[in-house]
Here is the input.
Amino acid sequence: VMTVPLYSSLALKKMTDLVAVWDVALSDGVHKIEFEHGTTSGKRVAYVDGKEEIRKEWMFKLVGKETFYVGAAKTKATITIDAIRGFAYEYTLEINGRSLKKYMENRSKTTNTWVLHMVGENFRVVLEKDTMDVWCNGKKEMETAGEFVDDGTETHFSIGNHDCYIKAVSSGKRKEGIIHTLIVDNREIPEIAS
Here is the structure.
């Protein structure tokens, strides 16, 4: 009697070809990008949040680039495959034409992110400072209302039946610029580091 393992050969093959995993924070959420590179088969597969976005089989050139799109805003992502020595490869992820590190550094300057817990549910709120678009749990909040107040502006919106607004006030310091604060049901929500 021969015992057959529970693992399928496909699952084992997938695990052995997985060469890189990145977490990318966009306005609509944090996306997991996984890349498979079969150096003997020439296979290249990119997954976003477990869903196959691109698949190429029998690529005879083992180095190169693969481009695909991530998230609700269809943000451009490119994986570059470079040979570093012998049969070793380096995999680099670019988002909108920038290295992931540079993209995330710039993103921390152009967005604010808050995570809050209400009524047994987590909410991730993102403000895109350049457009003043507000995202909540991956969806762009369409119902926002801007209002000028004595010390700055307020952008009002709702999460369920909770009244929310993002207050924008000058820091008074040129290097700091404008300070954005999320207020939900009259209480301030601390910002998370991007």
